Amino acid sequence: MFTVAGGTFFSQIIPLAILPILTRLYSPEEFGTLALYIAFFSILSVVVTGRYEMAIMLPKKEKDAISLFQISFLFSFIFSIFFLLVILFNSESIISFLKINSSVAWLYFLPFSIFLAGLYQIYSYWLNRNKKFSEIAFSKIVQSSSISFGQLGMKLVSLISNGLIFGYIVGQIINLIYLSRRVFLVRPKNFFHIDLSRLKKNLILYKRFPLISSFSSLLDRAAVQMPILLISRFYDQASLGIFSILLRFLDSPFAVLNHSISLVFHKKVVDLSHEDPSALTKEILQIFFTLLLFTLPFILIVYIFGAEIFRLLLGSEWGNVGDYAFLIMIVVSYRFCVSPLSVVLGLKKTLHLGAYWQVLYFLTISLTLILSRNLDFIDFIKVFVIHEVLLYSLYLVLIIYGSNYKRLN
């Protein structure tokens, strides 16, 4: 039986295994276009449901949970139609602002892809409510493998442009077919019975999700994707492709470890906050320096052999990307050392510290990269690295401050 952690692991490994093939079939420019697509998709998909899907797990009565399922679906449909209209009437302005030189057909498929993402989130929370964890885990594998093989198939069997994007959409569709069969397997008619009074009641009862959760989630996702958006605006698609593919290669293994460490550390944080709060700061520092020592050999390997490693992984047509790989490796490694510790800011009395940092990060990453827009691309990346190290160091300080036992008691 698959676990969620196992699903996350395999969903990361499968695309990584196929990526060296894809980088030989598609150009850096095409990967740059995919990165831009994913950036928009990532930002908008987080609010497509109004965040009502997160409330599906809360009601005691199944009828209320189904009502929230329906509300989330309606939000997804309306938001996607609205975004499609925005694109239809403003496509030229969007293309001009982002300096998109490649085929822009993908822009018109973005609302559909966002709608599919909304359905995926709704189905996942419904299965989570019903403790169908193995189905959720397997769906991650279905989606990642379908996307990867879809992108591969698009290039091998057709000559259409944007094969990476259309392969991504194919993967989404296949995964939703799998999830739909799991969700509607039991009492499917219940999902299509609409109780308007119950819809209205739950729409109001859980209004804090779209009013509060949507803003913070949107801000967080926008901050993460800001480098992609600004590289697209100020540099060429090939540069964006190199940045995104290196970040994907280097970050994926750490992302799997990060998830596992966070789960283990979260339990320890909760226990220490109740039993021995004074020991929490020491525990945080110990884990931070342990992770730092763990990452140093990887940084050195990329620094010394990065050019050869990525020439082998990506193909010779990507050029010498060793310098870029080393800089991005510093960012990925330092984030990995700090991010698992952020569960401390998930405690009730420290939530505001994480929110403060989130707003500050969004503002500083945007301002820093905009002010660096006239630099050579390698210098632009160096500024990005400096920003990440400084802001994540501040994040670490806030985590340590939040762990102060006087603030937890």
Mean pLDDT value = 87
N to C succession of SSEs:
HHHHHHHHHHHHHH
**Shape assignment:** globular
Strand content: under 5%
Please, could you describe this protein's structure?
It contains 14 helices and no strands. With 409 residues, the chain is mostly helical. α2 packs antiparallel against α8 and α4 runs parallel beside α6. The longest helix is centred in the middle third of the chain and has 39 residues. The protein is globular, with a radius of gyration of 22 Å. The mean pLDDT is 87.
Keywords:
409 residues, 14 helices, mainly alpha, 0% strand
Secondary-structure map:
Elements: H1 4-25, H2 28-45, H3 62-98, H4 105-129, H5 133-157, H6 163-183, H7 196-205, H8 208-234, H9 237-275, H10 280-314, H11 322-338, H12 351-371, H13 377-402, H14 405-408
Helix pairs in contact: 1-5, 1-9, 2-4, 2-8, 2-9, 3-4, 3-7, 4-6, 5-6, 8-12, 9-11, 10-11, 11-13, 12-13
What's a concise summary of this model?
This protein has helices at residues 4-25, 28-45, 62-98, 105-129, 133-157, 163-183, 196-205, 208-234, 237-275, 280-314, 322-338, 351-371, 377-402, 405-408. It is mainly α and 409 residues long. 40% of the residues are buried.
